[in-house]
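Appendix B. One record, verbatim.
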Amino acid sequence: MRATVIHAPHDIRVEEVADPAIQQPTDVVLRVLRACICGSDLWPYRGESTIGTGQRIGHEFLGVIEEAGSEVAGFARGDLVVAPFVWSDGICDFCHEGLPTSCPQGGFWGQAGSDGGQGEAVRVPFADGTLVKLPADAASDDRLLTALLALSDVLGTGHHAAVGAGVRPGSTVAVVGDGAVGLCGVLAARRLGAERIIALGRHQVRTDIARTFGATDVVAARGEEAVEAVRELTRGQGAHAVIEAVGTEQSMVTALRIARDGGAIGYVGAPHGSGSGVDLRHMFNRNIALRGGIAPVRTYLSELLPDVLDGTIDPSPVFDLTVGLDDVPQGYKAMDERTALKVLIKP
């Protein structure tokens, strides 16, 4: 079968790899119907993080089960399912506590020894603890299938940031970052009842999506200029809740400075580049809380799935470029050059 493989920075190839097969009785083999490129996939692509030569890549996908191991109880051949970006056994203490990302037997798609999601098929360990079944008729609805793909990562991650930031009805929310996760943070904040949502971003195509998702204001600036603009919009007080969806020192500093005294920051931008930028004295003096991390999207799926199915929320606009599997390298290039927001892959 064909799959996306990374060999070096800016060297993504689509190659023939071994077909996935059942290795453990709790496995399934899934035929991929939709996958995508994540902003975090760009880090190894740019050489900002280390990844093994010839390693599979990609962690967001959904598809149809082709084969199930003998101990798989919840799924059968032909089921349409979505895969969170982390697999988990579903039975450990962390899984029971809603934190499958800390499952001792869990892992990330594309890590050494595992299949990546940007391919024709994937072996899924611990299928019962990992996958979530989707309505079979969704497979014939292209827009809905695309929206459901966002449940594998970006929608749940945006929701995790909003929950961590304490978004509540009537609150003012600021979102740092205009990538797919930041935009889904806007969507999540609106869903949780925020009265005012300030989107920070300098790319009009993206901030236009933010407005359709529920942003009431846009700040097209960064650094000190952005801080002053948010302060002006909030009578000098800042936002009750801040979503940090970038992961750089500058974005975290901005988040801290635009948070209201007594407010909270929900951070889901995986740290990369220079230091964290967290000033503990600043947080202490102003009673600012900091919560977030790797989003346990499997935990949120039962809450978010019904709203995607009935159209209450529609994250599909974050996918603005569609490619076939053979054109995935061009998809990476487009996202790297910021000519695409998020690339949808149809194997």
